[in-house]
Design brief:
Blueprint: E1 15-17, H1 26-35, E2 39-41, H2 53-58, E3 70-72, H3 78-92, H4 96-102, H5 111-125
Helix pairs in contact: 3-5
């Protein structure tokens, strides 16, 4: 299948700092922001962050689309809900018992699954 160049659209996505909460350092954050427009991290609602002033300042500086350069990930957004529902639909179609009996090499890592999962993951970060 050939895709014309004008159909391909570049979409910038934020970085998700996971599985940790605290940023390793201001230099790490600066390097990440050279590649990604923003860095999001998963922080529980009741968790109190204890960051250095240098890191904290990035939460108060707006980047592209008027979003803070460092922010909490929005886990209850419509995009995340859509991605979760799509992932659940895809997983419900798989017969995991069959794959357990045959072993890992028989898990369906095909182009169709790859495209559907990429779509699912893309919906989660927009």
């Amino acid at each position: 299948m050939q895709v014309e160049a004008d159909v391909i659209q570049h979409v910038e996505r934020d970085a998700l700092y996971y599985p940790y909460i605290h940023i390793p350092g201001v230099d790490w954050l600066k390097r990440a922001l050279l590649v990604f427009p923003h860095v999001a991290r998963i922080v529980p609602d009741s968790y109190v962050l204890n960051e250095s002033k240098e890191i904290w300042e990035f939460e108060n500086v707006l980047g592209r689309w008027d979003k803070p350069l460092l922010r909490k990930a929005k886990l209850r957004s419509p995009g995340v809900q859509q991605a979760q529902n799509l992932l659940l639909q895809l997983l419900s179609k798989l017969d995991f018992g069959r794959f357990r009996r045959r072993g890992r090499e028989h898990f369906p890592y095909g182009a169709r699954y790859d495209a559907e999962f990429r779509y699912c993951l893309g919906a989660a970060v927009t």
